[in-house]
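Quarterly update, task 2.4: S-adenosylmethionine-bound model.
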Amino acid sequence: MPSKAKFLAGIKAEKGAGKKADLALASLPKNWPEDVEYLTDLTFSDTITPEIRRGLGRDPSGNSPWVRISFETVAAPLKAEIRLIDDEKHPACGQRGLFAAEPLVPDSFICLYLGHVHTNSMSDTDPHSDYDLALDRELDLSVDGSKSGNEGRFTNDYRGIAERPNAEFRDCFVQIPCSKRSEGMKWERRVGIFVLSVGKAAKRKAGIKADEEILISYGKGYWESRKVIASFRKDEEMLRIANLALDC
Ligand SMILES: C[S@@+](CC[C@H](N)C(=O)[O-])C[C@H]1O[C@@H](n2cnc3c(N)ncnc32)[C@H](O)[C@@H]1O
């Protein structure tokens, strides 16, 4: 895995556009698909005004319990890697998944879920995306990882793969560079992927083992809406997978 800080610093160090592209390719995570742009932070739709963007810096409850992730943590090399799934028994065989590269302790930060931030208006939303996630319900914003994103976009749903998820999405604040602040940094909200906590009976105290697939719950609604889309499109394979997931 490349360190994101190194990735950014490397790109800034190169002046020619061709060199930039070569360097970016060389720094892509292993198994990254050619047709998806790799991001080191969110990108924003033109419909998102500076005022809306400022809203992402607010502390909704005045004293938010959301975890704060420092710039160093976000920029550190990931402890997870993208792998191609070739196990025919896996419901996402032929696709990719995110796997632990080393043991991950309960509650630890795995990575951010990055993509293109858009408003939830119909004209700003890709109805075909399988990678769209709510970012801020109050601001009515989502983040779509279909055309651009990071490792987070490869996290599969646990249904049909394991008995239960071992990770979850959590709202968090991250520290990002800001030249307007005297400290050179500001806090802005993101969605992160975290290892589940140990749980009441401490059943999950082992966290996630090395080589284990990182699995979250997309929620039943995700698969129900895929079922509707599959029926509409008459896509038998999509319908089969949605039914399988819902039966689990
Ligand atoms: C956010 S993507 C996950 C990454 C995807 N596997 C890839 O290689 O890009 C969501 C898509 O992955 C597949 N997927 C995720 N979890 C699955 C599961 N439990 N069973 C079947 N397909 C799954 C479905 O095609 C779903 O629409």
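Highlight for this quarter: The two ends are 33 Å apart (CA to CA).
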